[in-house]
Amino acid sequence: MRDNTLIVSEKFYSLQGEGQTMGYPAIFLRLAGCNILCKSEHWICDTIEVWRKGKATDFQKVFTRNEINKLREGVHLVITGGEPLLHQKKLSEYLSWFVTRYKFLPTIEIETNGTIIPEVSLSKFVEYWNCSPKLANSGVPEKNRINTLAISKINSFEKSIFKFVVKDPSDMRHAIHDYGAEISSTKIMFMPAGETKEKLDLIRKNIIEKCILFGFRYCDRLHILTWNQKTGV
Ligand code: SF4
Questions:
Q1: How far apart are CA 117 and CA 108, in angstroms?
Q2: Residue 232's pLDDT is what?
Q3: Cα of 39 to ligand 1 centre, how many Å?
Q4: Where does ligand 1 bind, in terms of residues with CB under 6 Å?
Q5: Tell me, what's the pLDDT at 231?
Q6: 65 CA distance to ligand 1 centroid (A)?
Q7: How does pLDDT run across 99-127, given as a tens digit for each residue?
Q8: Ligand 1: which residue has its CA nearest to atom 6?
Q9: Model's pTM, two decimal places?
Q10: How many angstroms is it from 34 CA to the middle of ligand 1?
Q11: Which residues of 23-51 are buried (b: 16+ CB within 10 A; e: fewer)?
């Protein structure tokens, strides 16, 4: 029998807190699992405890009627993880099913680490691509964190951005060194590293000043500024 389920870790309604659509109301759908593990002296994945767990959820039960109404009215659907492209085949089946069942396509954003090449079967449904490629500061070996074919493919999508989490100008240089050849410079955004408001406050000014100096986009972290370390908001 056909398996009509998605492995869902978490779902909540909030505002998009980062990147090109920051401030849009959005329903977040977090799928389970990641293909890399960011863990270093500077940084540890802030959603690991959530994406490690997941529950097979029938297509029919992924969203409530109230959530479907919100999506119909224009609230964005942000599909995140972990790494949601681990599920891209099932996700494209789900989105086909969604369009047939509810007779509309919501505005979809995908949040990805840029290590898996998106397939057309999924990308045809997606409007915004929010890619956060990992640097050496993530503790992930280069061979596992850099997939130039995937980065080039995401760069080719009209509404894609690449958001680098950096603690200082040296991280900014590493981002350009590792990924600059594959990414249009106007799509690069730098975002300060830090899982608490206090840590962000310490480095923000330095990152903003370097963005101004070199002409890059800056991006802050609305959720940490507002709720500090709380997740699911
Ligand atoms: S790629 Fe993202 S979800 Fe995966 S471990 Fe790193 S920060 Fe966490």
A1: 18
A2: 67
A3: 9
A4: 34, 36-38, 45, 47-48, 51, 81-83, 113
A5: 67
A6: 30
A7: 999 999 999 999 999 999 999 999 999 99
A8: 38
A9: 0.95
A10: 6
A11: ebebbbbbbbbbebebeeebbebebeebb
